[in-house]
Amino acid sequence: MTEASTDLNDQLRASATSNRILIAAIAGIIFLTLYPFRFLLNRHVHGPVIPFLLDGWGKAAGPFDVVLNILLFVPYGFGLALKFRGKGKSRAATLGVCLVAGALLSYTIELLQFYIPLRDSGWEDVFTNSTGSVVGLLLFEMCGTFVLTLVSRAEWVLNAWLSLWRTILILTLYCVLCFTISLVLQRQTRLSNWQPDSLLVVGDAISGQSGSGWKGEVYQLELWDHALPDKFARSLTSGGLVDPAGPASLAEYDFSDSPPFQDQRHFLPDLVWDPQTAALNHPKTVVLDGESWLVSRGPVSALADDLQATQQFALRMRCKPDEVAGMDGRIVSIAQASGSANLELRQQGSNLVFWFRTRLTRKRSTMTWSIPNTFTNDQARDILFSYDGLALSLYIDGKKVHRGYQLGPGVALARFVRRIKANESEGYQYIFYTLVFFPAGCIVGFAWRKVAARPIARSLLIALGILLPALLYEILLVRWGGQAMSLENIALWVLIALAGSLWINADGCALNGSVDSDAPRRAR
Predict the structure, then answer these.
(1) Contact yes or no for 411/425 (Cβ under 8 A)
(2) Boundary-marking domain end, from 384, 405, 426
(3) Which residues contact 500 (CB under 8 A, 6 or more apart)?
(4) Same domain assignment for residues 454 and 503
(5) Residue 347: pLDDT band by 50, 70, 90 thresholds?
(6) Which of the chain's ends, N or C, has fewer CB atoms near its CB within 10 Å?
(7) Per residue in 178-190, pLDDT tens?
(8) What is the pTM of this model?
(9) Residue 5 — pLDDT band, cuts 50, 70, 90?
(10) Are residues 146 and 175 in the same domain?
(11) 324 and 186 belong to one structural domain
(12) Per mean pLDDT, which range of 17-31, 199-213, 273-287, 345-359 is the poorest?
């Protein structure tokens, strides 16, 4: 084979990676800019802003944000340049395509962000993203052909070396490594180091600060040592009929009686006033005035032990605040007399705040979940938190709050990179699952090529190479991580792995070795 033919084959193999680069770039842009994919169509309905004008130029982004916005679109511009230069288009034409395509994609993203409550849209991002697309073109012109040729040659050699059985062996070793790392990270999310001498407190931590307690009425408190089914939790907090055969609570306090308030399940100590002389007694309710609160007569060590054993819990509190503006107090907590807490539910202004202790959240500022606009003056709320060992769910007055709070291996890994936040926890999990299952799918994709002409073998490969790792991973997390079995997780992981298999085969020319028929002989 001539040198010119070899150069042509290298160029074709390099250009044939454009689909994969563009798919990866667009997928990354969509996830990083539109997550958590919750849209509120009436977000600006009361304002003068016209959606197509975005939010103007008022984002006031700093230099670091500008750099990130440029870098985000560099792979996109690189992929476009590879696609169009590979088709023989001129530099000027490719520059125009990169600039226009980058601006259109960025504008579409900003328009969608206009309706996402946690996002801000603006023309600054359109400008910086378009610049990033052009930078991608410049990067391709400087070193794109050289780098892509090396990558494509390395992929061809790997594809030639990998037999079906070698691929299966590598996939097995990869899964064992990833599962081991996942289990180590998952253990960092377990309920642990709970103080056994903690008390159950309603109204405030018993820190001795006069007037610092929560102010309002409390009606009922229930505790479980396991997560609650979704349907049952909705029914319980809606005030409707509840299935009598549903999960029984571990402890239950009814505040319509006179103090001391007894646990109707006879599991936890009675709740008494502290200080006793400050009690305000009202018929059929308990009123907390900020000067006094309810405290268990002894430590709730049995409760702490149970929750750490099951790695699950549910907590329900029916209450009504007297104040909203300026209020900052605990409604209920499991805490030591010194104020050090294992778990706390508190009110900060109109926000509901929840935190509990794990190896990841030893500091009270870490992974505190704040739910805005929960409380209003003199409006009762039926609040229930349910934790299944991985995900924390919240129900308020019969409705589930659709905001993610996850504690899994992805959150444990993210803390090595940045300060973790509760409202980003679901995203950490998605990124981690992608890091685990997408490469696994790519490995299966290499094996896929070996059996492309055998439909039965290909179907068996998909079942064993994609479905089996997802099932084993879920079983391991259930066994060692503590959470309940989730079919949704299995389906998600299968889709991610399948996406990896399809993505690695998205450019057929560079993948099947047909470009250069003499290559196998040269390799031998």
Answers:
(1) yes
(2) 405
(3) 437, 438, 439, 440, 441, 442, 444, 445
(4) yes
(5) very high
(6) C
(7) 999 998 898 888 8
(8) 0.80
(9) very low
(10) no
(11) no
(12) 273-287
The one-letter amino acid at 202:
V
Considering 405, 438, 455, which residue would you say is the last residue of a domain? 405
* Structure confidence by residue, pLDDT tens digits, 462-475: 778 888 899 888 88
Residues 308 and 321 in one domain: yes
Domain of residue 272, residue span? 199-405
For 154-312, list the strands marked E by DSSP: 199-202, 215-224, 251-254, 271-274, 281-282, 285-289, 293-296
CA dist 82 and 65 (Å) reads 27
Same-domain status, 22 and 59: yes
**Using CA atoms, how far apart are residues 154 and 156, in angstroms rounded to an integer?**
5
Q: Rounded to an integer, what distance in angstroms lies between the CA atom of residue 261 and that of residue 263?
A: 7
Pair 152, 170 in one domain = no
Same domain, 271 and 397: yes
* Pair (3, 139) in one structural domain: yes
Position 482 pLDDT exceeds 90: no
Query: Which of these, 358, 331, 357, 335, lies nearest to 345 by C-alpha position?
Result: 331
Q: For residue 261, give the DSSP letter.
A: B
Question: Cβ–Cβ contacts within 10 Å for residue 117, how many?
Answer: 10
CA atoms within 13 A on the CB side of 49: 20
Contact residues for 210 (Cβ-Cβ < 8 A; gap 6+):
291
Tell how far CA 170 is from the center of its chain: 29
